[in-house]
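Fig. S4 source data, part A: sequence.
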Amino acid sequence: MGGLSSLLSMLCHPAPGLKFPHHDGSGVGPVVVPVSHHGEPPASDAGLKQIDALCENAPELASQLGALYGKHDGVAMSVLPALPGEDPMPAAWLLPTEDWDAATDEWTGDDMSWAFEGLEMYSAGTWRVIGGIAGEGTDIVLFFDGEHNGEPLAGKCFCISLDPVLGYEEVVARSVDSLLARLGDDLVGFLSEVEFCWTTASDEGTEYGWEPDEYLPDVRGNELLVEPH
């Protein structure tokens, strides 16, 4: 199954959920928490033209992005129910095209230059922040052109964060299709790689990070199913 097909299939799961194992610190679990996925309407003509302009020298990348954004101009994956005082939180997301530039500008201002010291790759090609993962402010970066260490950068995806788990030059997907396959077929594996965590608390109120260990497409009738309060 292609990456886009994998992602679209996941968006159609009837009652998805994330399983969280027993947490030794809080004494909670194991539990299954219901989640939801949301795909935005197709990108506008302006959004698709933006993709074409960025992919001027990368026709395969243009095709993969066009296929995705022709279906959904942004996707929220595994939106977890809101905890007290907080908003519902997607575990991972792909941004609408109109948000790419603003999300990228947050990293390219003079006050953030320190984050890329010694990383020639980020000046070797055109890149945009196209998505993210909850926890530690992790963003997903996609390159549209350029070359680094003798290899083309177009289509490769990386993660950047103020408190990084992965190196800024550590490839997380070698193409958009591969990224969508990872998100659609192995979301928990991808989240584990970047150390995504939700929050649980002990009876005394101490909060802990909690990492899911399984994604389930249909949690109806699951004996571990809980509705967070």
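Fig. S4 source data, part B ends here. The mean pLDDT is 92.
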